[in-house]
Amino acid sequence: MGLFENWGIDASYIVIGLAVAVVIMIILYLLLMNKFKKYKENYDTFMQGKDGKDLETAILDKFSEIDKIKEQNEFNSINIEEIAKSMKFTFQKFSIVKYDAFKEMGGKLSFSLCMLTDNNDGYILTSVHSNNEGCYVYVKEIIKGESYVLLSEDEKKALTQAKSRKSALDD
User: For every one of its 171 residues, what pLDDT tens digit does the chain have, with 9 covering 90 and above?
Assistant: First the structure.
């Protein structure tokens, strides 16, 4: 103890300091052991019933599923594009105007039905109902929103209404 006395340090302070350091180290050791125990429990729960090879197989299976989903997504995207292309040629815009063709008639039994594609191509179907002469049906072709045959006021109204409708491709 002569070394400490030469420096002017009392040996009891060193012993007390070392004792405090040992107590702190024991507390830290216990805390670390508690944390390790929790991690070990989590690990055991995660690995329960599985060994490393099973876990690797499960991960590879998930990657395989992801690849299949990507392929299916690409296939679906192609199909959606094809459907959108073919929809341009389907009737998407409709309008019907009902009216009385003759003054003696009631109930608006006559009508003009306009059916158009996305490009405003299609037909106007007109049915004129009369008590005396029966029922007559006419079809007039529409190309790019225009008719090359003279339209009645009711047919023009049906065409205007149909052209103003939103098509399924307008998004």
Answer: 566 677 777 778 888 989 999 999 999 999 999 999 999 988 877 777 656 567 778 788 899 999 999 999 999 999 999 988 888 788 888 999 998 877 766 678 889 999 998 888 999 999 988 777 778 899 999 999 888 888 888 998 999 999 888 766 665
State which H helix or E strand residue 67 sits in: helix 52-87
Question: Using an 8 Å Cβ cutoff, are 19 and 27 in contact?
Answer: no
- DSSP 8-state secondary structure symbol assigned to residue 111: E
Tokens of 35: 């944390």
Contact 131, 104 (CB under 8 A): yes
Domains of the chain, residue spans = 1-48, 52-87, 93-164
Question: What's phi and psi for 73, nearest 5 deg?
Answer: -65, -45
Beta strands in the chain, from DSSP E residues, in sequence order: 93-99, 110-116, 122-130, 134-143, 146-147
